[in-house]
Amino acid sequence: MARLQEKVLTSNFNFKESPFKIKYRKYLHAAVDILSRLKKYPLAFVGLIVLVVYFLMAVFAPFLCPHDPAESNISIRLKPPIFLGGDWSNPLGTDSIGRDLLSRIIYGSRVSLLIGVITVSISVVVGSSLGAVAGYFHGRFDALLSRLADLLLAFPFLIFTIGAMAFMGPGFWNLIIALSFKSWVEFYRLVRGEMLSEKNKEYVEAAKALGQNDFTIILSEIMPNIFHSILVLATLRLGYLIVAEASLSFLGLGVPPEIPAWGSMIQSGKNHMMNAFWISTLPGMALVVLVLSINLLGEGLRDILDPRLRID
Q1: Cα 131 to Cα 138: distance, rounded to the nearest angstrom
Q2: What is the pLDDT of residues 212-270, one digit of tens each?
Q3: Which of 221, 156, 139, 152 has its CA nearest to residue 187?
Q4: Amino acid 120: pLDDT
Q5: Largest Cα span, the chain
Q6: φ/ψ (deg, to 5) at 10
Q7: Cβ neighbourhood burial of 294 (10 Å; 0-12, 13-18, 19+)
């Protein structure tokens, strides 16, 4: 890792010196520095490895699955996994209608990660943009958004999302909209608070003295200095949103039934806990491992990026 970091710092690129080159090398160096620091946090590093494995599993699901996740075969229903006397044709067994559990778990990772990443991305963009504008300019716009944020925070997240899904109906994009409708508030409050703290500092005053306009100062001067806080919150919220998606799928308010999802898989096996516990247990374990790895990585990033908690 040290050699890679040295190579990044000493590499001679073929394009001329420009602001783009400077920012490119700055962000690349920051990414390498974070990876090198993660080695001092073994749990966070393990969490990163597990998360990468899940992402690769989701991307290459069609090549990894031994069977079609929607194909059923009643003759092999409730087949046990290999560690309970099954065979390698269905390593993790089958469900109540004979669908291969391993294939459905792999495809279920696609749903969880895709919904989680899209929802977090929307929340970061919307919440950070509104928070930056409200915190920097203040005024009536800030007061209006702050009251709206307080109103949304008064409702428990899951209950609010259940109500939204009951109104819109189950569906992939409806689920993303329902989760995003309240998720942006946390990013709005974070960025607004950071913006209120940063906008009166000397480097902002210097940028104003050099003639930079307000939006250039927000994007080029302030946002890079608070990006680490947004990154940590986004990582932690990703795990929470994946659990929320699984909860809604468990209640039948998530993605359509024909799409494999961990929540609906856990729900389909709840009536077979005494004679085929693996139908619910194995998707539940996959969910727990993914969320735990995300939380471990988020905690490690917080310790790395917060100067008060950094281990040198």
Answers
A1: 10
A2: 888 888 888 888 888 888 988 999 999 999 999 999 999 888 888 788 999 999 998 88
A3: 152
A4: 95
A5: 77
A6: -105, 0
A7: buried
SS3 100: strand
- Residue recorded with tokens 């942006």: 184
**Whether the Cβ atoms of residue 247 and residue 116 lie closer than 8 Å to each other:** no
Residue 146: which H helix or E strand, with range? Answer: helix 139-153
Distance CA 21, CA 25 (A): 6
CA–CA distance from 180 to each of 133, 286, 297 (Å)? 19, 24, 22
Residue pair 36/1 in contact by the 8 Å Cβ criterion: yes
Is CATH 1.10.3720.10 the right assignment for the domain spanning 53-305? Answer: yes
Report domain extents, the chain: 1-39, 53-305
Q: How many angstroms separate the CA atoms of 265 and 203, rounded?
A: 53
Helix (H, G, I), strand (E, B) or coil at 94: strand
- Report pLDDT for 246: 93
- Percentage of residues in the chain having pLDDT higher than 90: 45
| Alpha carbon distance 248, 254 (integer Å) | 5
For residue range 257-287, list pLDDT tens digits in order.
788 999 999 998 888 888 889 999 999 999 9
